[in-house]
Design brief:
Largest sheet: none
Helix content: 55-70%
Number of strands: 0
Radius of gyration: 18 Å
Order of helices and strands: HHHHHHHHHHHHHHHH
CATH topology: Hypothetical protein af1432
């Protein structure tokens, strides 16, 4: 692909100022977070100004994904229990996925399934802060959404390739755009100033054995994406079950017995999403 065109498309993708909610609330909160004297009460009040967003965040934090189902009654309580990075990820996901059109139906459910699986895997192998792994799972396909909003003609061409050639979505993206959603994730993480562990998880979830700084996040999301597809939770853009990277289960020290236990637990939770 012509480098000038690729640069132009990157610029169009990163023109995310048109996406609803994302700039106002998050920019205000980001300024507050930079001040060491800011209290969680001030941050929660800033988020709570957007009542629709607050309701969506509370619904998400009370889901089984984050380990506190039905127990968080306020944004402030959510911030204390989960931390700002988790809440920021939830705000981004609920804001960006709001702009999905009917052609992307099923991607939100797939993302929820990946978040649920990421949380389950992280807890099963004893990861610290499993909630952040869940956020990485929730946001792992965010690049698909932003590309569809910013480059709708390219989205149609990608969908056509998936249908006509039965290609995996990521390969179709590469043919049309010259890059795929994991590269877009990298740009977005930098643009939105997401923490390095989320940045690596989102950027390397298709090639987790290449991640170097926070490989476990990328590896967990990779396995979670596989499980969500295996169980048919939502739709990631194609109907194919991705292949697990060689060595990823060994790297996470997931034995067959541990994997079967995770899958048994997830099967019940996935039923609510299918």
């Amino acid at each position: 692909m012509d480098e000038d065109l690729r640069t132009k498309q990157k610029g169009e993708i990163l023109a995310v100022k048109d996406l609803p909610t994302l700039p106002g609330v998050l920019e205000e909160v980001a300024v507050l977070v930079q001040d060491p004297n800011t209290s969680t009460d001030q941050i929660s009040k800033a988020i709570s100004k957007d009542q629709v967003l607050s309701a969506k965040v509370l619904k998400m934090v009370n889901s089984p994904i984050y380990g506190f189902p039905g127990r968080i009654g306020s944004i402030q309580h959510a911030l204390v229990l989960l931390g700002f990075n988790v809440i920021k990820g939830i705000i981004i996901s609920t804001s960006v996925f709001d702009v999905m059109n009917e052609n992307m139906k099923g991607l939100w459910e797939h993302s929820l399934g990946c978040a649920l699986a990421s949380s389950a895997i992280a807890r099963a192998i004893g990861c610290k802060d499993p909630e952040e792994y869940a956020v990485a799972g929730l946001l792992h396909d965010i690049g698909k959404v932003v590309a569809a909003v910013q480059l709708p003609d390219s989205r149609a061409a990608i969908d056509a390739l998936v249908r006509e050639k039965d290609l995996p979505y990521r390969k179709a993206e590469a043919e049309v755009l010259g890059f795929a959603h994991d590269r877009i994730n990298l740009w977005l993480c930098t643009y939105w100033n997401l923490p390095p562990n989320l940045k690596e998880g989102l950027s390397y979830h298709h090639r987790p054995m290449s991640a170097s700084l926070y490989p476990k996040v990328a590896q967990v999301v990779h396995v979670a994406d596989f499980l969500a597809r295996l169980y048919g939770v939502g739709n990631g853009g194609d109907d194919q079950v991705s292949v697990l990277d060689e060595g990823v289960l060994e790297a996470l020290e997931i034995t067959p017995e541990v994997l079967y236990r995770i899958m048994d637990d997830l099967e019940r939770d996935f039923m609510d999403l299918i």
